[in-house]
User: Which sequence fits this backbone?
């Protein structure tokens, strides 16, 4: 039996480094409210999703109509032989073992350390450097810099008209901020604290962003293969908001107004080669490489082919799987993660969207409508949902 676990706090557990990490209250709330999410992307028919949430009869009817056989369980079962968390860390391994999972079916300490190192943002420098060697004619943005001291940070910041500083491990836009050439006390204090705790900080040239996208991949432990595009929206802090639900061909068509498909294909193939050698020997599962389309100083539209590596499952990959598995070919939609501080307002939103966009399923595919992917219970503040319509 395969066991899936939604654990968004894993990014910060990687920053902590050890197994005795305590998630923040916000991270615990997100993990609780969206814990049923893996039921929509689990791969195996023999699958359990570890969650405290119940599948209500009306939702079970939808799952049956879509051919989804995964089951919700409130604790790992004795017949578990394979684990699929949102991401891997020493904290996640400890969480599994404390709940009865055999240690020998989990990554060992050496593998976890490899995953942690590769998950750090310094890997983006490695990927971009290798890309520049494989595709020398591609217009590459300035490589990000690994800054290991206060002096290096000050020199970098003051040499750029505008730059982005990033903690090696962080999540949801935290630990990332823009600096406009001034090395003030707040910047110095923040950067110094990150270097002291995490060993380095990344410096990147700020780009005039037009849109966000990602290329998703899957590693089988030997090589990686392209799993599809993610076309998504973020807020002003860079935190994830929503995804376009569409076929890969349709997303490529949308992107073609900025970037020629031939360039996307060339980058895709090069990233498959790079991640096969750099990541596949140390990691099995999905991974995503975030990118941006940006306007350079000359006003030309360019592709930044590696803003971030997500060595884990991602909301973009969830959206990709939902679009590929459950949407009728003639449809298009959006995938959202929505926050409401007031549960009553969340319930009202759910009721309103259900009335305005009733769900229609024909021959096991969604043809139109709104669908809440995660339940709204007392004290729920986060919900994942999709809205689909004819294209």
Assistant:
């Amino acid at each position: 039996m395969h066991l899936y676990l939604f654990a968004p706090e894993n990014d910060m557990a990687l920053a902590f480094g050890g197994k005795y990490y305590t998630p923040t209250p916000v991270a615990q709330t997100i993990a609780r409210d969206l814990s049923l999410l893996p039921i929509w992307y689990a791969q195996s028919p023999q699958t359990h999703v570890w969650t405290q949430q119940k599948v209500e009869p009306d939702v079970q009817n939808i799952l049956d109509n879509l051919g989804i056989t995964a089951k919700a369980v409130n604790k790992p079962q004795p017949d578990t032989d394979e684990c699929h968390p949102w991401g891997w860390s020493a904290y996640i391994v400890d969480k599994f073992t404390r709940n009865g999972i055999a240690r020998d079916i989990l990554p060992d300490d050496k593998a976890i350390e490899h995953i942690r190192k590769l998950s750090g943002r310094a890997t983006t420098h490695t990927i971009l450097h290798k890309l520049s060697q494989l595709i020398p004619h591609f217009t590459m943005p300035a490589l990000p810099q690994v800054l290991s001291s206060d002096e290096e940070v000050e020199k970098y910041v003051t040499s750029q008209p505008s730059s982005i500083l990033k903690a090696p491990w962080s999540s949801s836009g935290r630990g990332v901020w823009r600096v406009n050439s001034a090395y003030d006390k707040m910047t110095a204090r923040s950067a110094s604290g990150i270097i002291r705790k995490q060993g380095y900080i990344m410096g990147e040239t700020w780009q005039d962003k037009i849109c966000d996208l990602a290329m998703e991949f899957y590693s089988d432990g030997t090589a990686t293969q392209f799993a599809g595009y993610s076309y998504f929206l973020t807020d002003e802090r860079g935190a994830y908001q929503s995804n376009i639900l569409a076929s890969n061909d349709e997303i490529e068509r949308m992107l073609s107004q900025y970037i020629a498909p031939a360039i996307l294909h060339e980058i895709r193939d090069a990233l498959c080669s790079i991640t096969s050698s750099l990541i596949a020997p140390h990691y099995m599962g999905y991974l995503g490489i975030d990118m941006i389309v940006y306007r350079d100083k000359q006003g030309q539209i360019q592709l930044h082919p590696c803003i971030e590596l997500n060595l884990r499952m991602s909301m973009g990959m969830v959206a990709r799987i939902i679009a590929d598995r459950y949407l009728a070919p003639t449809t298009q939609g959006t995938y959202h993660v929505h926050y409401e501080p007031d549960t009553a307002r969340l319930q009202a939103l759910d009721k309103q969207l259900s009335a305005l966009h009733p769900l229609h399923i024909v021959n096991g595919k969604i043809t139109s409508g709104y669908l809440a992917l995660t339940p709204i219970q007392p004290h729920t503040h986060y919900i994942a949902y999709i809205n689909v319509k004819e294209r």
